Amino acid sequence: MNDYITYILEQTQNLLAIDSPTGFTQRAAEYVMEEYRKMGYEPRLTNKGGVFVCINDGATAKGNPSQNQAVTPADSGAVSPETGAIMLQAHMDTLGAMVCGISDKGRLSLSPLGGMSPNNGETENCRIYTRDGRVYSGVFQLKNASVHVNGKYNETARSYEAMEVVLDEIVEKKEDALALGILPGDVVCFDPRTVITESGYIKSRFLDDKLSVGILLGYARYLKENNLSPSRKIYQHITVFEEVGHGGSASVPADVTELLAVDMGCVGDGLFCKEIQVSICAKDSHGPYHYDVVSALIRAAQSAKLDYAVDVYPHYGSDADASLRAGYDCRHGLIGSGVYASHGYERSHKKGVENTFGLLKAYLQ
């Protein structure tokens, strides 16, 4: 297997092992920052907690934007969209939950962080992080979860009101949970259960979008190790808060004329993409992606003889969408490795990673 694909999968596994639901991403950001530094780049942390780095200045593949480079909505002036800087976006925040109540039995009620469906979280092991630094384990269950006791187990709709976290501590009343330091606002993180099979399938929660963060790290390493300098300036922004809609709404430098979100490609009924392919999105819930960008991505995939699909996503939004809604005057596109069972126990394939990595190389050469 290609060394860069091996590196991408290693970084993806490392990131998946770091709990980082939206709003709780500091440890993941520290890890990503250190990986960029190891490669010789100079990343910086945005005020929101994302990681921003310039991986190619158009002449040498190192450094950051100049200190006087405004990070404001772009005013590209006479800069051609095809030759202006491009920003690659992927997000390291994931789905999760937050404690919003404690029952008389000491069980925890949850409020979702992002689109975490209670159906997909049922019987999942989880960790509860308290504000004073303690970590407890538990499991997210239907209330009265014993089938031999609850005669309505099968007919009960799974909702946050009908479910709770049972702590792996001797807790019998609310005061017992409070004595552990657990309070409303504590973050709850679900096990990713990451597995890579011998046949090449990648199975885990939160491939959306840590798989693409791994791909962007792999592309940054590819440029550095091969001393490559594409003609366009290239930034990477590993965002946070994407899962709640505003990950890409800030930190776009003024010289950026194009945004390329690298996120999960949708796989499901009515769509063409498979897990072994790179998906090129023509339109999502917020509208069409820039026609010229989508067309250029298709031509690049064809020229490089990649396995790709073009799709319209019925229920989707990206960092690039958020950037445009924030007022940035940029063209935008969206690609990603095909991922099945999105926001659940997700699955992709090494070939999907290879094709996505290949499209970045072909498009940005």
Question: What does this entry look like structurally?
Answer:
The chain has 365 residues and is α+β, with helices and mostly antiparallel strands. 25% of the residues lie in helices and 27% in strands. It contains eight helices and 19 strands. Strands 1, 2, 3, 12, 13, 14, 15, 16, 17 and 18 form a ten-stranded mixed sheet that branches. It has a six-stranded antiparallel sheet with strand order 5-4-9-6-7-8. Helix 1 crosses helix 5, helix 2 runs parallel beside helix 5 (207-225) and helix 5 packs across helix 8 (350-364). It is globular and about 65 Å long. Residues 60-77 have low confidence and may be disordered.
Oligomer: single chain
Tell me the number of strands. 19
Number of helical segments with 4 or more residues:
8
Which term fits the overall shape? globular
Percent in strands:
25-35%
Secondary-structure topology with pairs:
Elements: H1 3-16, H2 26-39, E1 44-45, E2 51-56, E3 85-91, E4 96-102, E5 108-113, H3 118-121, E6 124-129, E7 135-142, E8 163-167, H4 174-179, E9 187-190, E10 195-196, E11 201-204, H5 207-225, E12 234-239, E13 256-262, E14 265-266, E15 278-284, E16 287-288, H6 291-303, E17 308-312, H7 319-325, E18 331-339, E19 346-349, H8 350-364
Parallel strand pairs: 3-12, 3-13, 13-18, 14-18, 15-17
Antiparallel strand pairs: 1-2, 2-12, 4-5, 4-9, 6-7, 6-9, 7-8, 10-11, 11-19, 15-16, 15-18
Task: Give keywords.
365 residues, alpha+beta, six-stranded antiparallel β-sheet, 27% strand, globular
